[in-house]
Design goal:
The protein is mainly β. 0% of the residues lie in helices and 53% in strands.
Length: 122
């Protein structure tokens, strides 16, 4: 059993930066970890995932090079650094643990956090 808890979401001005954290209980070393988000009135969308090392990280095109995902298996933590935020980034961000999938989204989540709200003002 894996439990995930996100934190770090808050109000930020457009162009600013924000870092999200995901604390996991249980063993996640063998899981691909990632982030999804859901904006108001829209469906949940994939943001990024990371395997054993940062070189295995994959990002959604919508991030346009502005985000960076990282993980610390020893601490059971996953992070998402977001830079140059735009109003379209406003959403509830969810941490996920799962496996790679052959069809979109590229990460199949087996476990989800409850989400943390990120609001970017224009």
């Amino acid at each position: 059993q894996v439990q995930l808890v996100e934190s770090g979401g808050q109000l930020v001005q457009a162009g600013g930066s924000l870092s999200l954290s995901c604390a996991a209980s249980g063993r996640i070393s063998n899981y691909v970890m990632g982030w999804f988000r859901q904006a108001p009135g829209k469906e949940r969308e994939f943001v990024a995932y990371i395997g054993w090392t940062s070189r295995s990280a994959v990002y959604a095109d919508s991030t346009e090079g502005r985000f960076k995902i990282s993980r610390d298996n020893a601490k059971n933590m996953v992070y998402l650094q977001m830079n140059n935020l735009r109003s379209e980034d406003t959403a509830v961000y969810y941490c996920a643990a799962g496996t790679l999938a052959p069809t979109p989204p590229p990460l199949r989540a087996d476990y989800w956090g409850q989400g943390t709200q990120v609001t970017v003002s224009a």
